[in-house]
Each structure stands twice: as C-alpha cells, then as structure tokens.
Design goal:
alpha/beta, TIM Barrel, eight-stranded parallel β-barrel, globular, FMN, flavoprotein, oxidoreductase
Amino acid sequence: MVKKILLNAFDMNCVGHINHGLWTHPRDESAKFNELSYWTNLAKTLEGGLFDGVFLADITGVYDVYKNNLDVTLKESVQLPSHDPITLVSAMAAITTHLGFGVTVNLSYEHPYLLARRFASLDHLTQGRMGWNIVTGYLDSAERLFGRQQLAEHDQRYDKAEDFLTLCYKYWEHSWEQDAVLKDKQTRTFTDPKKVHEIHHQSPFFESHGVFQVSPSPQRTPLLFQAGASERGVAFATKHAECIFIGGGSIAEVKKNVQRIRDTAIQNGRNPQDIKIFVGITVVTAENDTQAVHKLKEYQQYASPEAGLAHYSSSVGKDLSVYKEHERIPYEKSNSITSVNEKFKQQDITPYSLKQQHLLGGRYPLFVGGGETIAAQLIHFLDETGIDGFNLTKTVTPESYEDFIRWVIPEWQKRDRYKTAYTVGTLRHKIFQQGPFLKPQHPAKSL
C-alpha cells in the first residue's frame, strides 16, 4: 500500500511569514491578516482542499540583527507586526469540521499550568483538533522584552523544556481519569471525586501542586510537533514529538536527516513510524509548466531577497549586512538556531548565494511547474527521502493555496497518493489512524 501524503498549510498571524515582500503583489491579501474573515476564509479553503491542518508559526521578539536595527524588518513586514496565533483557532474551528490546528507556542515565556489549560480548553472546543508546536526560542530581542539580556544557553533551554513537558503531561494525562466525568443529574454527580487526583511536581525549574482544572479533552494531550535539528534538538524531538518539521535541501541531505531521526527515535525506545516527518516547501503552480514559470517571474518582481536576509540574520544571530556580496561568511558559534548556523561551517555561503536562494524572499525548497509536474516532483521527493508530508508555505495569498488545491491535489488523487475524504476523528487519529490518544510507549504515559 502506497504512503498517502500528509499536508499542512504553513502560515503565521502576520503579513510576511517566509516568502518576504510578496505582500506588495496586487493580488495578495495578507495585509488583511488582522481581520477575522481573512482566516475563516482561509480555513474554508484549506478544508475544501482536504488539508490535514494549518500549521501556525510564531515568534516572541523581533528580527533586529540585520544592520543592528529594525528598518528592513519594519518596512518589509518581516513577521512584524505579528499577532498571537492561538487567538485564531476558535473562529477557524467554528466554520470547519476536520481541519487541524498546529499552533506554535514558545515555552520559554509560559508557565506549564497556563499553557496546558489553554491547549486542553481548545482541544475541547475543536473536538480534538489541536496540536502544539513546541519551541524554546532563539531571539535575544525576546529576552530583553522580559527584562533579561540574552538567551539562556542552547542546551539549558532544552533542559527547561524537558521539565516543562513533564509537568504538562502530568496535568493532561494523570490528574483526571478518563471516566471521571459522569454528568449524572439523578445523583447530582458531575465528576466522581475518587477519579480526580492532585499532581505533585518539584524540580529545578518548576513546582506545582494540585488538581488540573480541565477535564480530559478528546486527545488529552494535543498532537505534539517539534522542529529541533541540533543534536540535542533531535534527541528532544524524537523523545517527545509525534510530528517533526525539518528543513529542506537535496534529496540526499533530507534522506540522511530522516534516517538520523528514525534511528534516534529507536534509541529513545520509540517506534520510528510513530513519528511523521514534514518538510517545508514553496510551490508556484499553474495549469501548465509555461504558465507556472511566467507566474514565478511575476512573483519575483515583488519579492524581497534582502528581507529574506534580515530574517536569516536573526535565525543565525549574525549581521549578514557586514559582508560583501561575494564574501564567504565565516562560521561563528551562535546561541540561535544551531542547525541553520552550522551551514556556514559546512558550505561556502555568501550574501549573494543567500539572495539567490531567497528568490521569493524565503529559503525553503522551491518547486515550479504545472500541476502534473509538481505532483510528480513532490511524490518523488517524498518517496526518495522517506518523509511523510509537507508544510506548504504561502507566496501570494490566498492564491497560492487555491492554485495548489486546483492543480496539484487532483493529480495526487489520480495517483492514489492523497485522500479523497477526511477520516472521522481527532487530529491525532487522522494523522496516525490509531485512535485519539498518545501511544502507550510515549514518555508521558509512564510518569
């Protein structure tokens, strides 16, 4: 049986997310991101295309490393302004039935109790369609907002994340028994007191004692996403995550990364197939290859490679504006995104080569062609690398998602590589076809 492709829309509650500058395109509507109808219309479009979910990115802080100021970030709206993504979920869920929601929340600026309560509440309201993308942050600008000077060390952030998740698991999985809620009017018993338990947690990072306020939601624990790519990040992700988001590259590079993740999952006592792996992609498509190439050239007139550099500078914690166009950028240890920064050690990278990669202002692999061409390319990419699906970034919105639904998805369906209807059930069940709850082997179950 061939593998069915999983697909998320990759977006953010802002104007410019990954492919920068395209907000200036006459057909782009992303400047309306602060209007609820923008998001409800998107949700309807994605569910009509049978997308598994909308993956909402987020950052805490701003991109102020490039030229040591915010000028390019503000002018080009490089994820600034950006709004809280979790505020979108209830409205999008209200007008859909199946679409899942993977929401990024940075645990470095949260308390486990409040985050766990928020996600459990939304899992109830969405009838089990919530996912959490777990991040620890990478911007010193975020630390300054909270009265600190700079990020904690990379591995220390993961130490805190381990403790954070342990406490969340206790709330979600161990405070309430599954059948605690009775709703029995005759005996005036809404909840059986014997089946609700206090949790007790004390560690170097967090202390908490008492009963979780939210009864078991349809999934109990939201579907867990993570994107760690450093050695410590992969160890963390393969211990906790059910879906892992990785960067692109050549087929050989991605295949090697996928194998690394699967092998590490085994070392962590997990079935490697209990983890679904997604790659971020950008697609420009149309009725045929010629029209798609014309559309790409049109988009390029509005894209901003420099805005892409401003974004990249903060990702690696290095001001890339100080280097000449063809000067090799040296590797320097950084406390930002380790896996991105490591590329300076492994490759000859210049500002010019980065701008060439940022043709549409973003750094994800770019696929251009008619629907049949794109469908075949992505199937080949998935089959050769061993990934499970894609996070599709926006270019011109909502056009880019509509184009993909119109031209690519029918070609996948013809090849029996994409669903023709949703499975009934929670987001976790839709992804794994094995019920609503975490697998018994997951570390949350054994606390």
